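To: structure subgroup
Subject: Chain for Friday's discussion

All,

I'm putting the inputs and outputs inline so they're searchable in the archive.
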Amino acid sequence: MADADVRIERDSLGEVRVPADVLYGAQTQRAVENFPISGLRPYRAFVWSVAVIKRAAAEVNVGLGLLDEKKGKAIVQAAQEVIEGRWDAHFVVDPFQAGAGTSHNMNANEVIANRAIELLGGQRGDAKLVSPNDHVNMAQSTNDTIPTAIRLGCLWRLPELLATLDALADALDVKAQEFDDVVKSGRTHLQDAVPVRLGQEFGAYAQAVRHDRERIATAGDRLRRLGIGGTATGTGLNAHPEYHPRMVQRLSELIGQPLRSSGNRCESRQSLADAADFSATLRTLAITLDRIANDFRLLSSGPATGLDEIRLPAVQPGSSIMPGKVNPVLAEMLNMAAFQVMGNDLTVMMAAQAGQLELNVMMPIIAYNLFQSMDILIGGVRAFTDRCVRGLKANREKAEGWLAKNAILVTALNPVIGYMKGAEVAKEAMASNRTIREVVIEKGYLTAAEADRLLDARKMTEGGIQGSGGGGG
């Protein structure tokens, strides 16, 4: 870079040439040069959450008489601008960076400090006016800032994720009601089984999503436990005794959600178990979504040579060579999103167990993977709900046609003719390509009227013992 394009900033190692047009400073520039790893940038949730902490810290430290009010107000305004997304382009540290997240923390400190300097009429880099370390980072350490930021960033998007899951479950419930009178062949081991209603299948999908939502909300509640104010090792060195409770209160106000003290600030930087727990609930959701997407692909397979029991909305051509082909692209997308979340959870798990003594230094990659998982789950589920679930249709003719050929309907006759005779009837029906009704009447095991009553497929989906007169009979 030409001299006119740079400014000189200093950190504890000496002078650093920094691009003149950026808000970050020396330590961020060193990180950019040291970690040209992936070309990835931090998620907005990480930028937002650290900026919220910086704003709250400035307000608390001014209130405690530790930070000059004029400097504090400038820091608050600068941090608020970061919160609003104004300076996202200046957050440039690769997720694969120095342990603990010092580089990301200093990126925030420097951007906010330099912007505060500008607000006070100074020139970028004038740390005497506003220091990234002494003023923006006052009463903080990377070691308590980053784990707090991980929690806040997840909580920031948690309501959006939960609402997205509610919308999916609601849409599946609508389909469950719409399809409740479509009786079809059940399948276990991918083989014919006793009948179910298509509405029952979809109602089960909705319930599974609601269970996962509950798990996520419960794990999210544990993220509300903050250890901010523990500074480097959890002892609170260089933080006012009132700093911790005041920070918890102010952060609660700023994010509009209830937060509480962790109760042990040493534990809060040693253990990332709450983050791992939350990630695991996202993985469990991904398992459910993957299973539902696979079922959609199976149920819509064909259409001429597959099950073809549901028809998914045609949203794009399915082939560059085969005219007229339409693929289950939204379900395929959801599969891939689920795989990514599962992989992210493995990374979070490995990183969470890698903590040593007073600190887990793997926090940057925990943050990146958690925020990515939430991002793609919100986007993936929303697209699947809006562009697939809401528009899908049942193919009643095909579903009921498959059911008519299902020899396993004989199961309903077990209480009347017994398992062995039922097996005999099923084998003969399949071998002769006839219905269970035809064979069981021919053999004299049932009259036509008895067969019609006992082989009522709809009643089979309602439970009870066929022929007993007590539920389903």
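Points worth raising on Friday:
The CA atoms of residues 233 and 358 lie 6 Å apart.
The longest helix spans residues 142-178.

D.
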